Each structure stands twice: as structure tokens, then as C-alpha cells.
């Protein structure tokens, strides 16, 4: 008899888990309350960030974070009524900034990032979605020598992990991307970095491929589980309940309450980001951009140019504050002066973030038939394919191609 797996959450991570589980021979059902790609996977910057091994917490963060939280122009925001819940997260975040921790976290992230294309490319090819991926590289820009100097630690972390990048002056950067402001004095060029030109359509294309392979997608909100002595046996939704042989929980930031119901507590917070879409801008970009001074990314997409940024700590489903999207768009227009357009759309989505900048990928410490795949913070699109591959190997009972010890659910 074919063994069955139910994947909760059809974001980029859940859909890739579902596809790899099919490849392992399982009969797979995906459950999502809003359909494929509805969460953070819809509106992200689209970068397949091979240079993203650097964690969010770096030495010096203890001085920086409080200052940023009280600065109204800062990209870091905390809704004050959320403080009691976020405080323990920030304490762990600061602890993760010790140099030895940073090295270990960067190693763990690099383990996954170095296999990003090994995980994602076969799925993109199977889905016939290659046209949604561009290999045009990325420029990280600096508008002062001081800002560039303060990036030395992060550059060194990347270099020591073999990330291929070139350091450019402002003129060299503008030769690669003429639309950049003359204010740029330095840039890091990552020539081999790819991006998707439509993150939502990419997840939807992968989900359609899953259905073509015989997978089922159920639109329902998971509310809880019916437990037997050795683990959950039924998944309770706002509609019908569903039999569950094995469960993969991949519901992004919304995994936290469901994991708690399954006996595992994780410090997972919504680091809410915003985007503004410039539908038909005068400026056409050749490459993806990240501004180190402005904490934004600007990506050429199929339907225009997308500017993303902000890290707002609040409940995942609290109403968005679109002033944040407008702040992002103002910075994007300063970085790329020709970025004007008649029609502009705005969006908010929650990055699922752990304080130690690592996802949870592994088997539940409580129940043998439960697996976790969530908490991919700023790099969940990039890591979706390799996470799916690892979950496939794990559920099939095979040795995983990456040591999953750093990503254990019970490490906190
Ligand atoms: C502004 C911004 C820019 C970003 N840029 C990048 C980037 O350039 N590159 C990159 O790699 N990453 C980027 N990220 C991060 C990336 O978007 C996330 O890490 C990734 O999308 C997480 O995917 P996921 O599948 O885990 O979660 P999600 O995409 O959030 O999916 C979770 C799914 O679970 C479903 N769900 C939730 N609760 C339930 C329930 N109870 N029952 C059923 N279904 C449920 C939701 O409907 C949703 O579809 C960015 C994020 C933001 C916000």
C-alpha cells in the first residue's frame, strides 16, 4: 500500500516538500487555508540568495537594536503591544550574535545555501517554469565608505565560505546597472546570483506540477489534531477532518501554534516585510539590487520592479501599516532615481524568523510521524527546494544529504 503524507502549508517550502515526497513514492496531500503561495512566498524579493550565509544577529547588535527600535526612520519596527511576546525572542537574538555562534550559524546556512540549486532546479525544470528564473546577478550597494567599512565582517564571513563576489567602486557598479544613483561609492557584485521574476507564479507553477503528478490540494485551515497514544492520527480543519499517516508542518510563521499543539515549542516570530510594486517604471533594471544603507532590495520582475524591505515585529495577522511600504518605495526611488510609475501596488508578508537565523528542519522530538519544515526567515524561497529534498529523504528514512543537527526542532 502507498504510504501517505499530509503537508500543512502550501507556501514555497510546503510545495517543495510535497513534490520531493512524491518523488520518494508517497501519496501526498497539501492543505492550505488560502491556496498555494498565499503567505510570505507571494510577495518576496525573489532572490535565490547564494550569498546569504550571514545571519541577522552580528556582534554589536546589542548596541544597534535598541537604537533602531526607537528611531522612527529605522527599518526595524516593533508594535509595542507585541513587546511581551517578542522580548524573549530578542534576548535569544542578541545571544546569537556572539562571534562563535555567528560562525556556526553561517556554516549551517551555507550548508543549505550551497545546495540551493541542487534542490530547486529539478523542480523548476519539472514544472516547466524555467522562464520564471533569471540569472542576472546581484549588486549590494553602499553610499558611503563608512557603510562599506562596516560591512567588512560580513564580507569576510562570506569569503571564508567560498562565496564568489567582486568588490566594485561606484563607476564599475553603474556600468553593470546604469539606473543606479550617482551616490553609490562601492558595491559587492554576486554575478552568479539568480532570482525569480514572479515568486507567486513560481509557487503556483510548482503546485500545479504537484497536482499533475496526482497530488491533492485541500483548501482548509488546520485548527488542531486528534491524537492517539503514538501521535496525531487526524488533522482537524475548519471543514472536514483529514486522516493523517505522516504529517509535515510547513505553514511558515503560522507553524508556531500548530507545533505547540504537537508538543514542540519554538521561538518563531513574524518579521513582517513590505513591498511596493512599480508596474511600468521608466527605469529598467538589469540586475537585482540590495542597498546596505537603506535596508531594501529592488528586483526586476516580470510585471515591473519590486522594492522590498522593513522588519516589523507584530502578530502575523495584525493589520498592515502601509506607511512601511511607502517608506520602502521612497528609498527605492532614491537608489534608482528613474523608478517612477503610474500604477503601484503594496503588500505585507511575514518572514518566519527564529532568533538564531536557522530554519527548523527535522523530525518532531515527540512524535515519529511528524516532521517540521519552517522558520526560513529571509531566505525561504532560496531554501525551499533543498528543504523539500531533505524532508523527502527524512520521511523516506534515508540518510539526509545535509547533517540536520543545526536545524533540530529541540535546539532552543
Ligand atoms: C518582503 C520580503 C522579502 C523577502 N525576500 C526574499 C528573497 O529575496 N529570497 C528568499 O529566499 N526569501 C525571501 N523572503 C522570505 C521568504 O518569502 C519566506 O522565507 C518564505 O516565503 C517562507 O515560505 P513558507 O512556505 O515557509 O511560508 P509561507 O509562504 O508564509 O507559507 C505558509 C502557508 O501556510 C498556510 N497556512 C498558514 N496557517 C495555516 C493553517 N492553519 N492551515 C492551513 N494552512 C495554513 C498559509 O496560507 C501559507 O500559504 C522575503 C520575505 C519578505 C516578507
Descriptive account of the structure:
With 412 residues, this protein is of the alpha/beta class. It has a single domain (4-59, 101-407), classed as FAD/NAD(P)-binding domain, CATH 3.50.50.60. It contains twelve helices and 21 strands. The strands form four sheets. Strands 4, 6, 7, 8, 15, 16, 17, 18 and 19 form a nine-stranded mixed beta sheet that branches. Strands 10-2-1-14-21-20 form a six-stranded mixed beta sheet, with helices on both faces. Strands 3-9-5 form a three-stranded antiparallel beta sheet, with no helix packed on it. The site of flavin-adenine dinucleotide has 40 residues, from helix 1, strand 2, strand 15 and strand 19.
What's the structural blueprint in terms of helices and strands?
Elements: E1 4-8, H1 12-23, E2 27-32, E3 47-48, H2 61-70, E4 76-78, H3 83-95, H4 99-113, H5 116-127, E5 133-134, E6 138-142, H6 145-150, H7 152-159, E7 166-169, H8 170-176, E8 186-190, E9 194-196, H9 199-212, E10 216-219, E11 222-228, E12 231-237, E13 242-243, E14 246-249, H10 255-261, E15 269-278, E16 288-291, E17 296-301, E18 304-313, H11 323-335, E19 344-353, E20 360-363, E21 370-374, H12 384-395
Parallel strand pairs: 1-2, 1-14, 2-10, 4-18, 6-16, 14-21
Antiparallel strand pairs: 3-9, 5-9, 6-8, 7-8, 11-12, 12-13, 15-18, 15-19, 16-17, 17-18, 20-21
Helix pairs in contact: 1-9, 1-12, 5-9, 5-12
Flavin-adenine dinucleotide binds next to helix 1, strand 2, strand 15 and strand 19.
Amino acid at each position: 500500500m502507498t504510504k501517505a503524507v499530509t503537508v500543512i502549508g502550501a507556501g514555497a517550502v510546503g510545495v517543495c516538500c510535497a513534490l520531493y515526497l512524491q518523488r520518494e513514492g508517497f501519496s501526498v496531500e497539501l492543505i492550505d487555508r488560502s491556496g498555494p503561495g498565499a503567505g510570505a512566498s507571494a510577495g518576496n524579493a525573489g532572490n535565490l540568495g547564494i550569498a546569504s550565509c550571514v545571519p541577522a544577529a552580528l556582534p554589536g547588535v546589542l548596541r544597534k537594536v535598541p537604537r533602531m527600535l526607537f528611531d522612527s526612520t529605522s527599518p526595524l519596527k516593533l508594535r509595542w503591544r507585541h513587546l511581551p511576546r517578542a522580548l524573549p525572542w530578542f534576548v535569544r537574538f542578541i545571544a546569537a550574535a556572539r562571534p562563535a555562534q555567528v560562525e556556526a550559524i553561517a556554516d549551517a546556512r551555507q550548508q543549505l545555501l550551497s545546495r540551493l540549486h541542487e534542490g530547486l532546479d529539478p523542480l523548476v525544470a519539472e514544472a516547466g517554469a524555467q522562464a520564471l528564473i533569471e540569472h542576472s546577478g546581484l549588486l549590494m550597494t553602499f553610499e558611503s565608505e563608512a557603510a562599506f567599512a562596516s560591512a567588512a565582517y560580513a564580507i569576510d564571513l562570506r569569503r571564508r565560505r567560498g562565496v564568489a563576489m567582486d568588490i566594485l567602486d561606484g563607476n564599475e557598479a553603474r556600468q553593470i546597472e546604469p539606473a543606479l544613483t550617482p551616490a553609490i561609492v562601492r558595491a559587492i557584485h554576486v554575478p552568479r546570483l539568480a532570482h525569480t521574476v514572479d515568486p507567486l507564479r513560481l509557487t503556483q507553477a510548482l503546485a500545479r506540477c504537484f497536482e499533475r503528478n496526482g497530488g491533492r490540494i485541500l483548501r482548509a485551515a488546520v485548527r488542531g489534531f486528534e491524537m492517539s497514544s503514538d501521535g496525531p492520527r487526524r488533522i482537524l480543519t475548519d471543514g472536514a477532518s483529514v486522516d493523517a499517516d505522516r504529517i509535515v508542518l510547513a505553514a511558515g510563521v503560522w507553524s508556531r501554534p500548530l507545533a505547540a499543539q504537537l508538543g514542540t515549542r519554538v521561538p518563531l516570530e513574524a518579521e513582517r516585510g513590505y513591498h511596493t510594486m512599480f508596474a511600468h517604471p521608466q527605469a529598467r533594471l538589469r540586475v537585482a539590487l540590495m542597498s546596505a544603507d537603506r535596508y531594501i532590495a529592488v528586483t526586476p520582475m516580470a510585471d515591473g520592479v519590486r522594492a522590498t524591505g522593513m522588519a516589523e515585529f507584530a502578530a502575523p495577522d495584525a493589520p498592515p501599516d502601509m506607511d512601511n511600504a511607502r517608506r520602502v518605495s521612497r528609498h527605492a526611488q532614491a537608489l534608482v532615481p528613474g523608478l517612477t510609475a503610474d500604477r503601484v501596488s503594496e503588500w505585507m508578508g511575514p518572514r518566519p524568523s527564529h532568533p538564531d537565523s536557522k530554519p527548523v528542519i527535522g523530525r518532531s522530538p515527540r512524535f515519529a510521524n511528524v516532521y517540521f519544515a519552517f522558520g526560513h526567515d529571509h531566505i525561504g524561497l532560496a531554501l525551499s527546494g533543498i528543504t523539500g529534498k531533505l524532508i523527502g529523504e527524512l520521511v523516506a528514512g534515508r540518510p539526509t544529504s545535509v547533517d540536520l543537527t543545526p536545524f533540530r526542532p529541540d535546539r532552543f
